[in-house]
Amino acid sequence: MATILNPYISFRGEARPALEFYQSVFGGELDLRPFADFDFAKTDNPADDAKIMHGHLRGPNGLNIMAADTPESMEWKGGTAISITLSGEDKDELQGYWDKLAEGATIGQPLAQAPWGDWFGMLSDKFGIDWMVNIAGSPGAGA
Predict the structure, then answer these.
(1) pLDDT digits over 43-58, tens only?
(2) Which residues contact 4 (CB under 8 A, 6 or more apart)?
(3) Hey, which of 70, 105, 115, 140 would disulfide with 123, CB 3.0 to 4.6 Å?
């Protein structure tokens, strides 16, 4: 198996709906494991038992996203210190991802042709996760 770099996102009670949303964006298989499934992971707060201890979306083309809920007893810092980027040459595919991620999002930079010739956009999705999309332009475009 080749080495894979996966974003692993920490949520506070929103891992399930977030991963289900990302599945609607990227497709693929979703595996959700709540705290209650693992004796060692049960918390002192029964409300946490239904939250996701580990979730994994295995999308097509090697796209992977992992996520978990942080129990109430632990500190949670949110996800604004990092952005997830999607980049490539398939404009239709990447535009489709952008359009789906943009549902309910705050758009920081609309997806548009950038001065360097690529198409680029930034948004914060409805779960507060920052995304950047870069679609490779034609060589010499924007020069």
Answers:
(1) 677 888 889 999 999 9
(2) 62, 64
(3) 105
